[in-house]
Amino acid sequence: MSEENKNDAEIKNDVISNLYKIIGLVLVAGGVIAFTLLSGNRNSNTTDGCRVNEYSPFGQAQQGVWVDLNSYAGAYAVSYFDMEFPEKPLPAYPNDHYRAFKRMFMEVYYTDDAGSEGVRFTKGYTCNGAEVYDTDGMTFRSTIIETIGDVDVTERGDGEKIAMATWYVGDYSYGILALEHPLDKDVMEELVRQLK
Protein backbone atom coordinates (compact mmCIF):
# COMPACT_ATOMS: atom_id res chain seq x y z
CA MET A 1 0.00 0.00 0.00
CA SER A 2 1.39 3.38 -0.91
CA GLU A 3 2.15 6.08 1.61
CA GLU A 4 -0.69 8.25 0.26
CA ASN A 5 -3.24 5.47 0.64
CA LYS A 6 -1.99 4.81 4.21
CA ASN A 7 -2.56 8.48 5.11
CA ASP A 8 -6.03 8.42 3.53
CA ALA A 9 -6.90 5.26 5.48
CA GLU A 10 -5.67 6.80 8.76
CA ILE A 11 -7.68 9.97 8.13
CA LYS A 12 -10.74 7.90 7.29
CA ASN A 13 -10.31 5.87 10.51
CA ASP A 14 -9.90 9.08 12.56
CA VAL A 15 -13.04 10.57 11.00
CA ILE A 16 -15.01 7.39 11.67
CA SER A 17 -13.69 7.20 15.26
CA ASN A 18 -14.64 10.84 15.92
CA LEU A 19 -18.04 10.29 14.33
CA TYR A 20 -18.69 7.36 16.70
CA LYS A 21 -17.67 9.55 19.67
CA ILE A 22 -20.07 12.30 18.59
CA ILE A 23 -22.90 9.81 18.05
CA GLY A 24 -22.20 8.33 21.50
CA LEU A 25 -22.34 11.75 23.17
CA VAL A 26 -25.59 12.60 21.37
CA LEU A 27 -27.10 9.30 22.51
CA VAL A 28 -26.04 9.91 26.12
CA ALA A 29 -27.47 13.46 26.06
CA GLY A 30 -30.69 12.15 24.52
CA GLY A 31 -30.90 9.49 27.21
CA VAL A 32 -30.54 12.09 29.97
CA ILE A 33 -33.24 14.24 28.39
CA ALA A 34 -35.56 11.26 27.89
CA PHE A 35 -35.01 10.09 31.48
CA THR A 36 -35.78 13.57 32.81
CA LEU A 37 -38.97 13.84 30.77
CA LEU A 38 -40.19 10.31 31.48
CA SER A 39 -39.45 10.46 35.20
CA GLY A 40 -41.68 13.51 35.55
CA ASN A 41 -38.70 15.63 36.62
CA ARG A 42 -39.13 14.55 40.23
CA ASN A 43 -36.47 16.99 41.41
CA SER A 44 -38.42 20.07 40.34
CA ASN A 45 -40.73 20.08 43.36
CA THR A 46 -38.66 18.80 46.23
CA THR A 47 -39.59 20.60 49.38
CA ASP A 48 -38.02 21.72 52.59
CA GLY A 49 -40.90 22.17 55.01
CA CYS A 50 -43.14 22.74 51.94
CA ARG A 51 -41.11 25.72 50.89
CA VAL A 52 -40.42 24.71 47.33
CA ASN A 53 -36.81 24.54 46.09
CA GLU A 54 -36.38 24.39 42.33
CA TYR A 55 -33.72 22.15 40.82
CA SER A 56 -32.55 21.77 37.25
CA PRO A 57 -32.39 18.24 35.75
CA PHE A 58 -28.68 18.25 36.65
CA GLY A 59 -29.29 18.96 40.35
CA GLN A 60 -28.21 22.58 40.74
CA ALA A 61 -30.43 24.58 43.08
CA GLN A 62 -31.89 27.70 41.56
CA GLN A 63 -31.44 30.91 43.53
CA GLY A 64 -34.83 32.25 44.54
CA VAL A 65 -35.38 35.99 44.49
CA TRP A 66 -38.26 38.37 45.05
CA VAL A 67 -39.59 39.66 41.76
CA ASP A 68 -41.30 43.06 41.53
CA LEU A 69 -44.23 42.85 39.12
CA ASN A 70 -46.70 45.19 37.45
CA SER A 71 -49.89 43.26 38.06
CA TYR A 72 -51.70 40.60 40.02
CA ALA A 73 -51.52 38.34 36.95
CA GLY A 74 -47.73 38.54 37.04
CA ALA A 75 -47.63 37.75 40.76
CA TYR A 76 -49.95 34.80 40.20
CA ALA A 77 -47.72 33.47 37.39
CA VAL A 78 -44.64 33.56 39.65
CA SER A 79 -46.20 32.31 42.90
CA TYR A 80 -48.42 29.63 41.30
CA PHE A 81 -51.34 30.39 43.65
CA ASP A 82 -54.02 33.03 44.01
CA MET A 83 -54.69 35.50 46.79
CA GLU A 84 -57.84 37.42 47.67
CA PHE A 85 -57.18 40.84 49.16
CA PRO A 86 -59.01 44.14 49.45
CA GLU A 87 -58.38 46.57 46.61
CA LYS A 88 -57.42 50.08 47.69
CA PRO A 89 -58.08 49.33 51.39
CA LEU A 90 -56.85 52.72 52.65
CA PRO A 91 -57.81 55.82 50.62
CA ALA A 92 -54.55 57.60 51.51
CA TYR A 93 -52.53 54.78 49.84
CA PRO A 94 -53.92 54.32 46.31
CA ASN A 95 -50.85 52.92 44.51
CA ASP A 96 -50.65 49.11 44.33
CA HIS A 97 -47.41 47.17 43.94
CA TYR A 98 -46.94 43.43 43.44
CA ARG A 99 -44.12 41.09 44.40
CA ALA A 100 -43.69 37.33 44.34
CA PHE A 101 -41.17 34.67 45.23
CA LYS A 102 -41.41 31.66 42.94
CA ARG A 103 -43.89 29.08 44.24
CA MET A 104 -43.62 30.45 47.78
CA PHE A 105 -44.96 33.96 48.35
CA MET A 106 -47.19 36.63 46.86
CA GLU A 107 -47.43 40.18 48.15
CA VAL A 108 -49.37 43.28 47.29
CA TYR A 109 -48.68 46.54 49.06
CA TYR A 110 -50.13 50.01 48.80
CA THR A 111 -48.23 53.31 48.93
CA ASP A 112 -49.08 56.98 48.80
CA ASP A 113 -47.76 59.24 46.02
CA ALA A 114 -44.57 59.92 48.02
CA GLY A 115 -43.84 56.17 48.24
CA SER A 116 -44.70 55.74 51.92
CA GLU A 117 -46.15 52.27 52.51
CA GLY A 118 -49.56 52.07 54.12
CA VAL A 119 -50.32 48.35 54.22
CA ARG A 120 -48.87 45.09 52.86
CA PHE A 121 -50.72 41.79 52.29
CA THR A 122 -48.73 38.55 52.08
CA LYS A 123 -49.65 34.94 51.42
CA GLY A 124 -47.06 32.16 51.58
CA TYR A 125 -47.09 28.47 50.80
CA THR A 126 -45.39 27.30 54.00
CA CYS A 127 -47.27 24.05 54.72
CA ASN A 128 -46.34 24.17 58.39
CA GLY A 129 -47.78 27.37 59.81
CA ALA A 130 -44.49 29.28 59.59
CA GLU A 131 -44.92 33.02 59.82
CA VAL A 132 -44.61 34.99 56.61
CA TYR A 133 -42.72 37.84 58.30
CA ASP A 134 -39.42 37.54 60.12
CA THR A 135 -39.83 39.26 63.47
CA ASP A 136 -36.23 38.81 64.62
CA GLY A 137 -34.96 42.14 65.87
CA MET A 138 -38.45 43.66 65.96
CA THR A 139 -40.04 44.67 69.24
CA PHE A 140 -43.70 45.25 69.88
CA ARG A 141 -45.26 46.46 73.11
CA SER A 142 -48.14 44.05 72.73
CA THR A 143 -48.58 40.63 71.16
CA ILE A 144 -51.99 39.02 71.49
CA ILE A 145 -53.81 36.16 69.81
CA GLU A 146 -57.36 36.97 68.69
CA THR A 147 -59.83 34.57 67.13
CA ILE A 148 -61.27 36.15 63.99
CA GLY A 149 -63.84 33.91 62.36
CA ASP A 150 -62.35 30.41 62.66
CA VAL A 151 -58.74 31.60 62.68
CA ASP A 152 -56.33 32.42 65.50
CA VAL A 153 -54.54 35.63 64.48
CA THR A 154 -51.39 36.90 66.18
CA GLU A 155 -51.65 40.69 66.42
CA ARG A 156 -48.56 42.75 67.22
CA GLY A 157 -48.55 46.45 67.94
CA ASP A 158 -48.18 49.18 70.51
CA GLY A 159 -51.14 48.26 72.68
CA GLU A 160 -53.57 50.54 70.84
CA LYS A 161 -52.85 50.05 67.15
CA ILE A 162 -51.79 46.95 65.25
CA ALA A 163 -48.68 46.93 63.06
CA MET A 164 -48.67 43.23 62.10
CA ALA A 165 -51.21 40.43 61.93
CA THR A 166 -50.23 36.85 61.04
CA TRP A 167 -52.07 33.52 60.84
CA TYR A 168 -52.23 30.32 58.85
CA VAL A 169 -54.90 28.15 57.28
CA GLY A 170 -53.95 24.73 55.91
CA ASP A 171 -50.77 24.89 53.85
CA TYR A 172 -50.78 28.71 53.61
CA SER A 173 -49.61 31.42 55.98
CA TYR A 174 -50.92 34.99 55.79
CA GLY A 175 -49.81 38.35 57.01
CA ILE A 176 -50.79 42.00 57.01
CA LEU A 177 -48.10 44.55 57.72
CA ALA A 178 -48.60 48.22 58.58
CA LEU A 179 -45.32 49.09 60.27
CA GLU A 180 -45.05 52.69 59.10
CA HIS A 181 -48.64 53.55 60.02
CA PRO A 182 -50.20 50.98 62.41
CA LEU A 183 -53.94 50.46 62.05
CA ASP A 184 -56.80 50.60 64.51
CA LYS A 185 -57.77 47.14 65.75
CA ASP A 186 -61.16 47.08 64.00
CA VAL A 187 -59.62 48.18 60.67
CA MET A 188 -56.90 45.51 60.87
CA GLU A 189 -59.37 42.80 61.80
CA GLU A 190 -61.61 43.70 58.86
CA LEU A 191 -58.60 43.40 56.55
CA VAL A 192 -57.80 39.99 58.09
CA ARG A 193 -61.30 38.79 57.14
CA GLN A 194 -60.71 39.83 53.52
CA LEU A 195 -57.27 38.26 52.98
CA LYS A 196 -57.53 34.69 51.63
Largest sheet: 9 strands, antiparallel
SS-derived structural category: alpha+beta
Percent range of helical residues: 25-40%
When the domains are counted, the total is 2
Shape: elongated
- How many β-strands, per DSSP? 11
Tell me the quaternary state.
Answer: single chain
- Poorly predicted ranges: 40-49
Strand percentage lies at 25-35%
Average per-residue pLDDT, rounded, comes to 83
Rg measurement, Å: 27 Å
Order of helices and strands: HEEEHEEEEEEEEH
Q: What would you say this structure looks like, in words?
A:
- The chain is elongated.
- The strands form two sheets. Strands 3, 4, 5, 6, 7, 8, 9, 10 and 11 form a nine-stranded antiparallel β-sheet that branches. It has a two-stranded antiparallel sheet with strand order 1-2.
- It is α+β, with helices and mostly antiparallel strands and 196 residues long.
- The termini are far apart.
- It contains three helices and eleven strands.
Task: Write a concise synopsis of the structure shown.
The protein has 196 residues and is α+β, with helices and mostly antiparallel strands. It contains three helices and eleven strands, in the order αβββαββββββββα.
Record keyword descriptors for this entry.
single chain, 196 residues, alpha+beta, nine-stranded antiparallel sheet, two-stranded antiparallel sheet, 28% helix
Itemize the secondary structure elements and their pairings.
Elements: H1 3-38, E1 47-48, E2 51-52, E3 66-69, H2 72-79, E4 95-101, E5 105-111, E6 117-125, E7 142-148, E8 151-157, E9 161-169, E10 172-177, E11 183-184, H3 185-194
Antiparallel strand pairs: 1-2, 3-4, 4-5, 5-6, 6-10, 7-8, 8-9, 9-10, 9-11
